[in-house]
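Saturday, quiet lab. Running sequence design on the structure tokens for the scaffold JK sent over.
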């Protein structure tokens, strides 16, 4: 079908599914061939269930969602995981926050089940793809998406293409060293950036600084279990909670400034569940630090897609996989010798 001489996609021909897997939940989105989301689904995950049971749960979730739009046959699936993904094998090599998730071939498992093309990507990379397609990074060839959630990571675009590195670990900020390491068998990761700048790090620092004294300052805190408790304390006027968050996001600003020094990007995008806890505070703190270190620093902006960045990235990746599968392999005729 054409409109004004330009081919337009037939949205009735099929659909794709994008899967966004976190440490404790998984989101599914079914979209048509224009990328319009037709249906969504979200389920809780139990990290202690291990890879096999979790993969079965994800497969069933895809089936349930696809059945809701059975008239649109499923053409491809894409999924992000909180793990580096090897650029050649597409194996999820390890996930810090998921016990037992080491060298998991999700693509093979899903392809066996559905007999469809499957794309697998790291979660921060998938968020960067989403922002490049439908978010604030549209039209930007060089940018970094920094995701702060339970852990921390980033997705890097260089010259319009996702940069994954030799093993798929490009942008894995959690291994940056922020203090002189004191390695031991018990604590092999001492000094890692993620120990401080992450949901886990905020909760740990909140427990250390606030402790039980927070109970006497009207915060309503009983136990600091995650970063939300510290954000809530800051909103209720607890100065110690504000100091904790300012310290940690200043540290994030220094890490982002290091990325700017190495990559010289057009844009820095901040996203992830922790950033949405106090987006204006986080962005302004990071922006101030980056500009202090780099007078000609690039813009530092909040994700335009929020917690849907990975979902849009997965939809785009699934559409791309469907297009590649539909195209016949290119063969070149032998020319005259």
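Result came back. Writing it out in full:
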């Amino acid at each position: 079908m054409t409109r004004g001489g330009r081919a337009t996609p037939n949205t009735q021909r099929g659909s794709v599914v994008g899967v966004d897997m976190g440490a404790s939940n998984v989101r599914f989105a079914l979209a048509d061939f224009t990328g319009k989301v037709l249906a969504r689904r979200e389920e809780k995950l139990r990290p202690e269930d291990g890879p096999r049971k979790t993969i079965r749960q994800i497969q069933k979730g895809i089936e349930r969602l696809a059945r809701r739009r059975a008239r649109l046959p499923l053409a491809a699936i894409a999924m992000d995981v909180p793990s580096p993904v090897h650029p050649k094998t597409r194996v999820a090599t390890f996930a810090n926050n998921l016990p037992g998730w080491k060298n998991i071939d999700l693509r093979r498992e899903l392809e066996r089940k559905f007999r469809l093309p499957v794309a697998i990507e790291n979660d921060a990379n998938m968020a960067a793809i989403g922002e490049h397609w439908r978010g604030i990074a549209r039209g930007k060839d060089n940018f970094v998406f920094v995701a702060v959630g339970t852990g921390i990571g980033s997705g890097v675009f260089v010259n319009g293409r996702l940069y994954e590195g030799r093993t798929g670990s490009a942008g894995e900020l959690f291994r940056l060293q922020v203090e002189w390491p004191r390695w031991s068998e018990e604590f092999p990761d001492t000094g890692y950036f993620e120990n401080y700048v992450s949901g886990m790090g905020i909760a740990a620092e909140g427990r250390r600084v606030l402790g039980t004294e927070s109970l006497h300052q009207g915060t309503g805190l009983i136990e600091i279990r995650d970063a939300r408790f510290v954000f809530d304390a800051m909103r209720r006027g607890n100065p110690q909670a504000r100091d904790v968050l300012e310290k940690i996001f200043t540290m994030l600003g220094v890490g982002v400034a290091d990325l700017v020094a190495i990559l010289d990007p057009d844009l820095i995008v901040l996203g992830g569940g922790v950033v949405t806890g106090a987006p204006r505070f986080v962005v302004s703190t990071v922006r101030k630090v980056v500009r202090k270190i780099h007078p000609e620093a690039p813009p530092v902006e909040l994700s335009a897609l929020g917690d849907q960045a990975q979902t849009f990235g997965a939809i785009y990746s699934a559409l791309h996989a469907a297009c590649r599968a539909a195209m016949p392999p290119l063969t070149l005729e032998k020319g005259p010798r």
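Notes for JK: The two ends are 41 Å apart (CA to CA). Residues 239-263 form the longest helix (25 residues). Ask whether to fix the surface positions before the next round.
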